[in-house]
Amino acid sequence: MIERAVAQRRNDGYIVDSLGWVLYQVGKYKKAVKHLERAVRLRPHDPIINDHLGDAYWQAGRRLEARFQWRRSLSFDPELENQRKTQVKLDEGPGVVKPVGSGG
Q1: Burial 62-92 (b: 16+ CB within 10 A, else e)
Q2: H helices within the chain, ranges in order?
Q3: What total of structural domains would you count in the chain?
Q4: How far apart are CA 32 and CA 18, in angstroms?
Q5: Does the predicted TM-score (pTM) go above 0.85?
Q6: Domain with 86 in it: what CATH number?
Q7: What angle do CA 65, 70, 72 make, to 5 degrees?
Q8: 35-55 pLDDT, tens per residue?
Q9: Residue 73 belongs to what domain range?
Q10: Residue from 85, 97, 26 nearest 58 by CA
């Protein structure tokens, strides 16, 4: 369904982000990066989309870029709860991420 929504609204950064985030959650990190980079281009000042891209970069092994995106996310004044979560990732790393459906 999300892929159909993206096909219909290719320039909607929130929908493109949703597709990237679903790919991230099922462990397809490199594919997620592609869509999340596009979502950031469409919505460059959205703290959540920038945070999502940071998470995908981290899982794809692109650690410096991940930290850059998390700092960028914080610069856009996210809600306090999201700010705290992002700061923890900067301070300690994101921890272990298990893809949805990976049994654990």
Answers
A1: beebbbebbebbbeeebeeeebeebeebeee
A2: 2-8, 13-25, 29-42, 47-59, 63-75, 80-92
A3: 1
A4: 10
A5: yes
A6: 1.25.40.10
A7: 90
A8: 999 999 999 999 999 999 999
A9: 2-92
A10: 97
